[in-house]
Amino acid sequence: MNALLEPGMMVRHPTQADWGLGQVQSNIGGRITVNFEHAGKVVIDGRHIELIPVFGP
């Protein structure tokens, strides 16, 4: 599923709910950069963490 994430999409981290909503900045070679509300910019290894897409409000 991570391979489908594109810049601008909104996601949540499956084990870090306190980070809040995140916006995908880039997805290159399985490294996904996300800007989270309460954690700032985080680089996620998409081979180990499956981010949860958020659709709608």
Write a brief structural summary.
With 57 residues, this protein is mainly β.
Your description of this structure?
It is globular and about 25 Å long. It has strands at residues 10-12, 22-28, 31-36, 40-45, 52-54. It is built from no helices and five strands. The model has no long low-confidence stretch (mean pLDDT 96). Helices cover 0% and strands 44% of the residues. A five-stranded antiparallel sheet has the order 4-3-2-1-5, with no helix packed on it. It has a single domain, classed as SH3 type barrels, CATH 2.30.30. The chain is mainly beta and 57 residues long.
Write the layout of secondary structure elements.
Elements: E1 10-12, E2 22-28, E3 31-36, E4 40-45, E5 52-54
Antiparallel strand pairs: 1-2, 1-5, 2-3, 3-4
Number of helices: 0
Q: Widest sheet: strand order? A: 4-3-2-1-5
Please provide the ordered H/E string of secondary-structure elements.
EEEEE
Question: What is the 3D shape?
Answer: globular
Please report the total strand number as a whole number.
5
Number of domains: 1
Into which percentage range does the β-strand content fall?
35-45%
Residue stretches low in confidence (pLDDT < 50, at least 5 long) are none
CATH architecture: Roll
CATH class descriptor name: Mainly Beta
Q: In the CATH scheme, what's the topology name?
A: SH3 type barrels
SS content category: mainly beta
> Termini separation (Å)?
21 Å
Helix content: under 10%
Radius of gyration: 10 Å
Largest sheet: 5 strands, antiparallel
Q: Write down the overall mean pLDDT.
A: 96
